[in-house]
Amino acid sequence: MQKMISAIILIILGLLVMAVPALGILPVAIITGFLVLILGIGLLLGGIIEIGESAGLGILEVVLGVIALILGLGFIFNPALFAAVAGFLIYIVGLFLIIAGIMGVLTKEGNNRLNGIVAIIIGLLLMFVGSNPIYLGVLIGLWLLIIGIMMIFQKD
Fold first, then answer.
1. How would you class 150 by CB atoms within 10 Å of its CB: exposed for 0-12, middle for 13-18, buried for 19 or more?
2. Which DSSP category does 4 fall into?
C-alpha cells in the first residue's frame, strides 16, 4: 500500500512539475527552486523506500534529497543564491539524477535497475540540454512520472 501511495504521489508531482514551467509567469529562480524542491522530494521518497532494500543506497538517496530540498528552498527564497549557481544548476540536477540512477542500477531488484537507467538517461539529457528551466521541468517531471508508473506495475 505504501508503494502504491508513493507511486501516485510521484505521478502527481511529475505532472505538476511538467505543467508549472509551461505557465511561464513565475520568475526563473522560483520555477527552478520549485523544480529542484520536487526533485528533492522524489529523491527522499525513493530513498525512504530503498532503505528497506539497501540501507546504504537508501541513505545516500535521502542525503541527495535533503541537499536538493535545501537548494530548492534557497532558490525560492534567496534569488541571489540562484544567480550564484544558475550556471551550474542544470549540471547539479543532472548529476543528482545520474547518481540516483547509478544507485538504482546497483540495487538487486530488476525494476529499480530500470528506474536507475531512466534516471541516468534523463540526467545525461539535462547535461546536454542546457540551462532552460522549461526543459529542466519537463525532464524532471518525466522522470518522476515514469518512476511512479513503473512503481505501480512493480511486483512486491
1. middle
2. H
Point out the residues of the chain with pLDDT beneath 70: 21-28, 80, 83-84, 86-87, 89, 108-111, 130-133, 136, 156
CA torsion sign, 131 to 29 to 91 to 40? negative
Neighbours of 5 (CB within 10 A): 11
DSSP codes of every residue in 81-126: HHHHHHHHHHHHHHHHHHHHHHHHHHSSSHHHHHHHHHHHHHHHHH
The answer for 132, left when phi > 0, alpha when psi is -120 to 50, beta otherwise, is: beta
Distance CA 85, CA 90 (A): 9
pTM check: above 0.85: no
Cα–Cα distance for residue pair 115/136, rounded to 1 Å = 18
Cell of 105: 542500477
Segment 65-85, tens digit of pLDDT: 999 999 889 888 887 677 667
Q: State the chain's mean pLDDT as an integer.
A: 80
